[in-house]
Design a protein that fits this description.
Layout (H helix, E strand, L loop, with lengths): L4 E3 L3 H8 L2 E2 L10 E4 L4 E6 L2 E10 L17 E3 L10 H6 L1 E6 L1 E8 L2 E9 L5 E11 L5 E10 L3 H4 L5 E2 L1 E2 L4 H4 L6 H6 L9 E2 L1
Parallel strand pairs: 2-5, 5-11, 6-11
Antiparallel strand pairs: 1-3, 1-8, 4-5, 4-7, 7-10, 8-9, 9-14, 10-11, 10-13, 11-12
Amino acid sequence: MCGRSTLTASEGEIEVRYKATFYGDDVEKYHPNYNVAPTHLMPIITSSDPEHIHIFKWGLLPFWAKDAKIGYKMINARIETILEKNAYKKAVQHRRCLVPMDGFYEWKRSGKEKLPYRIVTKDQEIFSVAGIWEKWKSPEGEEVCTFSVITKPPTSIMEGIHDRMPAILLPEQEKLWLDEELPAKEAVQLIIDYPPDLMEA
C-alpha cells in the first residue's frame, strides 16, 4: 500500500513542472505537505483537462458508492487487477490522471519495530504517479472529485522495504497516460519499473 506521500513544492513550481495552471480557486486549497494522507486534498492533472491543476480528495469514490467511507479502502488500485475490477475499469479507460509527488513513505519491519523510509527520485524534484479519478455525488447532492494511486510490485530499491510501490511514470510517458484515445490496456502497459538507480530511500 502507498498510504503516505509528500508534496512540498510551491504552487508556482508545480505549474512550471506541468505547464499547467491551477483551476479557479483551487490554488487556495493547496498547501505544501510533508505528510499527505488518505482523505487529504492533493493536486492532480486529469486526462480531460491537462492544462489545469485540480484539487481532488485522495480515496476513490466510484459513482455507484452509497457511502463516502468506502474511499478509505480505495486509496490504491493494483495494476494487476485494475482492468477487471468494477470500481476501476471505467476510470482507467476514461478518467486517468497524474498525481504529483516529491516523495513517498513506506515502513520496513525490523523485528517488532517499523522503520520509516522516505523514497524520492534523483532525476526529478517532482515526479508523477499514475492515477485514476472519479466524480461522485453524495446523497445530499454534493459533487466530490476523488482519486486513487496505482501501485505495482517493488523494484530492487523497494524490495527490502515493502512489497508494493506507487506506479511512477517516466516523464516521456506522462502525456501518453493522459491520452484518452489510448486504450486502457495499452495505457497500463506504459507502467514499467522506474530505474532503481534513479531513486533513493
